[in-house]
Amino acid sequence: MSELRKRGSKIEENQRNQEMASRGTEGDVQNILVLLFLYVLQGIPLGLAAAIPLILTNRNISYKQQAEFSFAYWPFSVKLLWAPIVDSCFIKSFGRRKSWLVPVQYLIGVTMYVLSENVNYYLGDTDESTEKIEPNVGMLTAMFFFLNFLAATQDIAVDGWALTMLQKHNVGYASTCNSVGQTAGYFMGYVFFMALESYDLVTLPGFLKFWSVIFLISTTLVAALKHEQDEGAVKAEESEPLQDENIENEELDLGVIDTYKLLWDILRLPIMPAAIAMLLTSKIGFAATDAVTGLKLVENGVPKDKLAMLAIPMIPLQICLPWIISRYTSGPRPLDVFVKAIPARLLMGIVMAGLVWVTPSFKTESGEFPISYYCLVVFLYALHQVTLYSMFVSIMAFFAQISDPSVGGTYMTLLNTLTNLGGNWPSTLVLWLVEGLTLSECVGGTGGCSGKEEREACTASGGTCSVYVDGYYVEVAICFVIGFLWLFAWGSRTLRTLQEAPEESWRVVKQKRAHLQ
After folding, report:
1. Is 303 helix (H, G, I), strand (E, B) or coil?
2. Is 442 helix (H, G, I), strand (E, B) or coil?
3. What is residue 246's predicted lDDT score, i.e. its pLDDT?
4. 129, CA 20 to 30 Å: which among 90, 211, 407, 500?
5. What is the predicted pLDDT for the residue at 230?
6. Which residues contact residue 291 at a Cβ distance below 8 angstroms, ignoring those fewer than 6 apart?
7. Do residues 310 and 378 make contact, with C-beta atoms less than 8 angstroms apart?
8. Nearest in space to 310 (alpha carbons), one of 363, 366, 375
9. Nearest residue to 79 (alpha-carbon basis) of 263, 269, 280, 285
10. How far is it, in rounded angstroms, from Cα 459 to Cα 441?
11. In this prediction, what percent of the chain has a pLDDT beyond 70?
12. Could you give phi then psi for residue 133, rounded to 5 degrees?
């Protein structure tokens, strides 16, 4: 009888799912548009933060200062630290997600407005042509770190709201809204702004002020007009009697303290030290290429707006690549693609360094670059994207495979945090070291060229600083060697061990369900 009841329940569930699927997005079109717009807003600060290093490059700041500003990108990599608080602390009468979304977006709008009033001063621009002000990189870093912190908090709130805003059969659209919306926002904050700014159609203060007003108006409309569903009612409506075989895969609804305890339990799993070490070190070999190449191209005369516009032909490739690569990562061994992509990506680092080397030879007497040069750049960046996405899609497939389904969201967020940190810290480090590894001498003047003050003294004495060893190429070579040593001495063996580990070694919720519930 028990087997008959299970079979009958499955038939009813299939019929119900088919009926909901046949309705498509009916009743959710407005909700999908709201989510898409919220994710677009989220991408604006990210795009603007990406534009600042290129703007600073033309103001002759040091690479150590670029390293300082790179900390502004860190909030999205460590949002797991405060995500449980955002998920668990709220004002019930106002709404679980709106309790955070509304004040955070107001803060983003206010911060953008304050920044718009002061950003020119922070960048070293002044109305008095005789007065020279150094860019205040510390203040820029603090302001954009705060903006990205707020955007990361908004991301946590919107991700959670999507689960109850959309009907159960349409929840899959949430990830689409996330990727499309955030990409569109990033595009507008970075590529669109750089293009308009290069033709003097908009200024950074004006752009910031415009979006501050959009944030304030849209947040007011969301607070007044968009209401949250009661999560308890949603869960009661969607819940069905669980079958014995599915109980283990039901995701737990944990409080803030239990979530932090769970994170600690995951980190204490015997297999996690090797996994953590792999995620934090696997991108060292690519750090110089990823963090410094774009800045070097601008330093060699490539217009920053043209470099930003090269992101446009990459968009179709970035959309198609995950679909193509997923055909090879959907099996039981997704990390095989990861291992094979590492040597190719390391070699692309050498190729990109070669691109930087030949860039001055393409420059015409008028300071322009021919279309053939930009075609070369697009082609090489496309090859680089293939290697990058091969690693990204395969590691995401591996995370989905090993994450304990009982705590899937928390588990995945932890793994994503580790892999993001594995990319951030090497990038910050290579930016910090590139200047120290550069060797130059003062030609035609007195003094040295090892620091900013010495370079200014050399120029003041009628000389010029001639670089005979560029730290960028030194770093690319060092990263290339480290990358191959990592792969063949430790990485490939560790990746194979992690991939072949039994499923149970990744599980953290076993007998704890009865205790937590």
Report:
1. coil
2. strand
3. 47
4. 211
5. 59
6. 70, 426, 427, 428, 430, 431
7. yes
8. 375
9. 263
10. 12
11. 85
12. -120, 135
Whole-angstrom distance, CA of residue 416 vs CA of residue 402: 13
Strand 439-443 and strand 464-469: the pairing is: antiparallel
3-state secondary structure 276-332: HHHHHHCCHHHHHHHHHHHHHHHHCCCCHHHHHHCHHHHHHHHHHHHHHHHHHHCCC
Q: Please say whether the beta carbons of 123 and 53 come within 8 A.
A: no
Distance CA 269, CA 498 (A): 13
Structure confidence at residue 407 as a pLDDT band (50, 70, 90): low
Which CA distances in Å does 270 have to 189, 274, 306, 337, 506?
43, 9, 49, 25, 9
Q: Do residues 218 and 41 lie in contact, with contact meaning Cβ atoms separated by under 8 Å?
A: yes
Q: How far apart are CA 117 and CA 206, in angstroms?
A: 9
SS3 of 159-223:
HHHHHHHCCHHHCCHHHHHHHHHHHHHHHHHHHHHHHHHHCCCCCHHHHHHHHHHHHHHHHHHHH
- pLDDT at position 255 is 76
Q: What pTM, to 2 d.p., does this model score?
A: 0.83
Q: What is the predicted pLDDT for the residue at 193?
A: 93
Average per-residue pLDDT for the chain: 85
Find the distance separating the first CA and the last CA of the chain, reported in whole Å: 29
The better pLDDT of the pair 228, 232 is held by 228
Lowest-pLDDT range of 97-106, 191-200, 422-431 = 191-200
The residue among 449, 302, 279 whose CA lies nearest residue 362 is 302
> Chain centroid to CA 218: how far?
24
HSE-CB of 340 using CA atoms within 13 angstroms: 13
pLDDT score of 515: 47
Q: List the one residue out of 140, 146, 158 whose CA is nearest residue 40.
A: 158
Q: What is the pLDDT of residue 171?
A: 72
The label of the residue with tokens 């060229």 reads: 449
441: β partners: 466
The confidence score (pLDDT) of residue 511 equals: 41
**Closest by Cα among 187, 211, 206 to 110:** 211
Dist CA 399 CA 424 (whole Å): 19
Element (H, E) at 441: strand 439-443
* Relative orientation angle of helices 272-281 and 256-267, to the nearest 10 degrees: 90
Give the position of tokens 């060697």.
Answer: 481
Q: How far apart are CA 247 and CA 253, in angstroms?
A: 13
Nearest to 500 by CA among 275, 343, 249, 325: 275
Distance CA 234, CA 470 (A): 60
- For the record, the structure tokens of 344 come out as 């190719």
* Residue 418 token pair: 């580790």
Within a 10 A sphere around the Cβ of 310, how many other Cβ atoms?
Answer: 17
Residue scoring higher pLDDT (271 or 512): 271
Contact 152, 13 (CB under 8 A): no
